[in-house]
Amino acid sequence: MKDLKEIEELPELSDGRLVLRPYRPDDTQAVAAMCGDETALRWLPMPDPYRLSDAEEWIADAGRRWREDRFATWVAVDAGDGRLLGSTSVRIDAESEKGDIGYLVERSARRGGVATHMVALIVGWCFDELTMGRLQIRCDPSNEASRRTILACGFQMEGLLRSEIVIRGERTDSLVASLLPGDPRP
Amino acid sequence: MKDLGDIAHPPDLTDGRIRLRRLQAADKAAVVKACNDGLIERFCFRVPYPYEESDFMDFLSYNEHFWTSELIANWTVVDAESDELLAMISLDVVALRQAGEIGYWCAPWARGRGITSAAVRLVRDWAFDELELERLELTTDVDNYGSQRVAQAAGFRREGVMRGYLTARTRRADDVLFGMKHDDPREPVVTLPDPRLEDGRIVVRPFWIEDAPAVQAACDDPDVSRWIYLVPSPYTLADAEEFVADSWRGLVAGERARLAIADATGEKLLGSISLDLFADRQAAEIGYWIARDARRQGHALAAARLVVRWAFEEVGIQRLEILTYPGNAASQSLAQKLGFVREGVLRGFLAVEPGKDRAGRVELPAGAALPPRDDQVQFSLLRGDWAG
């Protein structure tokens, strides 16, 4: 796998339709609105209620998160008009050369394939650029939109991890799915 | 801070069980015996080694003036009733910073009873309450597990590692800095306790450095290195010593309890069992190995039952995981006997290690340039599933 120390700043990734770029301070309002959404708070381990100061802290911490924790986080914006469509991340375990992907789509941009495009960009970066060995996605078993994204990106369901994650103080189950470098990609 | 000129000599301090008093000529035999110990040689670099009677006589004469000339208070720690010598402790006051540095050693015959922690608590209280110092510090070698436990038991917090801090005899050593402010809580800092779990047949306890040769013998076995990720093969004594030191680091940091499985006497090593805590400290992974001649006697199952109970009842774990290679039938059978539920197969979860042949490997299409990876079968046991 590529030595991550060579990557000081996260790259921009684009497929012509949307662009993943590092967080900027002027994303604060849009990020706070996206993360404060009821559906987002239902599925993801985030502060509830989600305040403007939470978005400020999350954005200010992005560089450290990558350099120290190998937790790569981007916003997805429309390649044409630059409006915020979502956010996505991959938490890399460099020692075992694998990553755990997360994503969130802005309410107004849902049902348009944004999550699938975000995941495909991360998959390409992790496998083709970094030559990692495994990517996984975990989601709540009743999160139908997320399950559709997982399958649309070619990930294979592996199992149900019981009581695996804490969301808003409650332990809940996660489905886990994986994609390996040799798997077909849609 | 008080005017230290008012204190002609540090007073005796006692908690009823131990007493801190002035060094006496009559302490010579006990001090000479204690200081010719391997651990004191390794970690207390200011103590001469080998330690001769003349070293004691020099020390006794300096000690008369330590407080008045250098603001170093030094006490002999003795049994409050029998006056048996147990340890030595010092407080070096740094007046400029209104701070103090505590140093100590414990005689080999007095270890494992909390004597040094009790002595540190007495000196700590005297320094804060009588001298009115603002801060206390204590530094120990990164590999000095006993000393780090003493610091935690006296309420000191681990503040950082000072790399290449000092030259200890012939080597340059990294030291851990522990600090305490006068208004910090004085209760012990609890990370992971040192457990001693018993069922009458086996004992599960922290590793000792004396276990290293038995660890080396057990791990230099293709069946152990085959089924445990990142276990080197061949396995050297240096690997075993690092394994023990790393086990201590995990306990002190509160991140992993890697424990020895021993026979009913607690002495003979049978295997190892570990509880690796996840970042939220609510979930953890269990891993283990058993030495070749101790297999097929139920030791792994017995040890796992003790650790499962400890994890749920003492550590507060909510979810336990076991991950094994698909070809490791013994571990999958063990997980099922413990009541763990099979959740799925995580494909390509671990990198393949050169020279280790494990069944259950992921097949890649012909011509794929990447090395294959190993699958892991994942099991879990929830606190709610567990019958107790």
Secondary-structure map with pairings?
The complex is a heterodimer of chains A (186) and B (388).
Chain A: E1 13-14, E2 18-21, H1 28-35, H2 38-43, H3 52-60, H4 62-69, E3 71-78, E4 84-93, E5 98-105, H5 114-129, E6 134-139, H6 144-152, E7 156-167, E8 170-179
Chain B: E1 13-14, E2 18-21, H1 28-35, H2 38-43, H3 53-70, E3 72-79, E4 85-94, E5 99-106, H4 115-130, E6 135-141, H5 145-153, E7 157-168, E8 171-181, E9 197-198, E10 202-206, H6 212-219, H7 222-227, H8 237-253, E11 256-263, E12 269-277, E13 283-290, H9 299-315, E14 319-324, H10 329-337, E15 341-351, E16 373-382
Helix pairs in contact in B: 1-3, 6-8
Structure description:
The complex is a heterodimer of chains A (186) and B (388). With 186 residues, chain A is of the alpha+beta class. Helices cover 30% and strands 32% of the residues of chain A. Chain A has a domain at 4-133: Gcn5-related N-acetyltransferase (GNAT) (Aminopeptidase, 3-Layer(aba) Sandwich), CATH 3.40.630. Chain A has helices at residues 28-35, 38-43, 52-60, 62-69, 114-129, 144-152; strands at 13-14, 18-21, 71-78, 84-93, 98-105, 134-139, 156-167, 170-179. An eight-stranded mixed β-sheet of chain A has the order 1-2-3-4-5-6-8-7, with helices on both faces. The longest helix of chain A is centred in the middle third of the chain and has 16 residues, at 114-129. Chain B has ten helices and 16 strands. Chain B has an eight-stranded mixed β-sheet, sandwiched between helices. With 388 residues, chain B is of the alpha+beta class. In chain B, helix 1 (28-35) crosses helix 3 (53-70) and helix 6 crosses helix 8. The radius of gyration of chain B is 25 Å and the shape is elongated. Chain B has two domains: 4-181, Aminopeptidase (3-Layer(aba) Sandwich); 197-382, 3-Layer(aba) Sandwich (Aminopeptidase). Helix content of chain B is 29%, strand content 31%. Chain A binds chain B through residues 96-98, 131, 133-134, 136, 156, 158-164, 166, 171, 176, 178, 180-182, and chain B through 280, 282-283, 318-319, 341, 343-351, 362, 364-365, 368, 370-371, 373, 378, 380, 382, 384.
